[in-house]
Design goal:
The structure is a single chain. The chain is built from 11 helices and 10 strands. It is α/β, with parallel strands linked by helices. The strands form 2 sheets. The chain has a 5-stranded parallel beta sheet with strand order 3-2-4-1-5, sandwiched between helices. The longest helix has 13 residues.
C-alpha cells in the first residue's frame, strides 16, 4: 500500500493525523513455516545509511512495529519504500500491553520488523520486552545491523576503543546521578553516555566533580547529520565550552576510563586496612578489600599489617 498517514493501520499517541488505535492485531491467513522477529537498525541521521536489507524488509514484512509511526512514515517516503504490511505503534508506553499480541502474530507465522526512531531497537530504545518475550516463548529473533550512535561516537572520540561500556542516560536528579557516577569511579573502560542538550552542562559539571577536570572526554553532536560536530578535550575544557555555547541536537558523550593505578608496596596500604578495621571490619576482610582495590598481594599486605603493629 501507499505509506501515507491515512493508510498506516496503527498510530503513535502523539500523532492524531494517523487515526485512532486499530485495536488488537488480527492474525489473518497463517503463513507457512515459523514466524520471526527482526530488529532492524535505522539511520541515526543520514538516510543514506539505510541498508538494502532494511529497505527490503520494510517493503515485505507482515508487520512493522515502529516506535513512532510518523518518523517511520518520513523514513519510508525518503527511501521510496511502499510498506505492504501492517504498521503498529510500539513504544515504551504500550510495550506492556502490546507485546503479547505481537508475539502471537509471530507464533502464527508472521514476520515482524521492529524499528525505532534511530539506531538499533532495544538499545536505550523500545524492543527489549519483545526480545525477552520471544526468547521465553522460543520464537526466532534476528537482526539487521546498521547505524549505531554508541559505536559511531566511540569510534570518533579518539579515546581507547578496545574495552568500553554503554551507560545510556544518567539519572536526571542530582543525588541519583551522583550515586551512579560514584559506582563508575573506578571504571577503567571507556564509557559512552547519551544526554539531552539542555542537560549537558549539568552533566559535565557532575563529571568534573566526580572524575576531575583533567579526565579526557568527547562530546559528539548530531552524528551523521549536516552539522555533525565532535568536541574533544578534558572535562574542564568541555564544561567551559558548554557554558559558553547553546548546545543543540542529539548528544553522545564519551568519557575516558580511570587511569591505571600504580599498586605500590603492601606497606603503602597498611593505613587503609587499619581504617577499615576501625570501622568494625575484621582484619581478614579488611585486607581482602584493600588488596583487591589497590591490586597487591593479600598475603603480603596481611604480613605488612601484622609487622606494623
Amino acid at each position: 500500500m501507499d505509506p501515507n498517514p491515512s493508510t498506516f493501520a496503527d498510530s503513535s499517541p502523539a500523532d492524531s493525523s494517523l487515526g485512532a488505535e486499530a485495536g488488537p492485531v488480527t492474525a489473518g491467513p497463517v503463513a507457512a513455516g515459523p514466524g520471526r522477529i527482526v530488529l532492524a537498525a535505522t539511520p541515526i541521521g543520514n538516510t543514506g545509511d539505510a541498508s538494502a536489507r532494511l529497505i527490503e524488509l520494510l517493503g515485505t514484512a507482515d508487520i512493522v512495529a515502529a516506535e513512532d509511526t510518523r518518523r517511520l512514515h518520513r523514513l519510508v517516503q525518503s527511501l521510496g519504500v511502499t510498506v505492504a504490511g501492517r504498521v503498529i505503534s510500539y513504544h515504551e508506553h504500550n510495550e506492556a500491553t502490546k507485546t503479547a499480541e505481537l508475539l502471537e502474530q509471530v507464533r502464527a507465522g508472521k514476520t515482524l520488523v521492529m524499528v525505532t526512531d534511530a539506531g538499533m531497537p532495544s538499545v536505550s530504545d523500545p524492543g527489549f520486552r519483545l526480545v525477552e518475550g520471544a526468547v521465553t516463548a522460543g520464537l526466532t529473533v534476528t537482526a539487521v545491523p546498521g547505524p549505531s550512535a554508541v559505536l559511531t561516537a566511540l569510534a570518533l572520540s579518539g579515546l581507547p576503543t578496545d574495552r568500553f561500556c554503554f551507560e545510556g542516560f544518567l539519572p536526571r536528579k542530582a543525588g541519583e546521578r551522583a550515586s551512579r557516577l560514584a559506582d563508575l569511579a573506578a571504571e577503567r573502560r571507556t564509557m559512552v553516555f547519551f544526554e539531552a542538550p539542555h542537560r549537558l552542562e549539568s552533566m559535565l559539571r557532575a563529571l568534573r566533580e566526580r572524575f576531575g577536570a583533567e579526565r579526557r572526554i568527547a562530546v559528539c553532536r548530531e552524528l551523521t547529520k549536516t552539522y555533525e560536530e565532535v568536541i574533544r578535550g578534558t572535562v574542564g575544557e568541555l564544561l567551559l565550552w558548554a557554558e559558553n555555547n547553546e548546545v543543540r541536537g542529539e548528544i553522545a558523550v564519551v568519557l575516558g576510563g580511570a587511569p591505571e593505578q600504580v599498586p605500590g608496596t603492601p606497606e603503602d596500604h597498611v593505613a587503609a586496612v587499619n581504617e577499615l578495621m576501625a570501622q568494625g571490619i575484621r582484619l581478614k576482610e579488611a585486607v581482602a578489600a584493600v588488596a583487591e582495590d589497590v591490586r597487591v598481594s593479600k598475603r603480603e599486605l596481611y604480613s605488612a599489617v601484622l609487622a606494623a603493629r
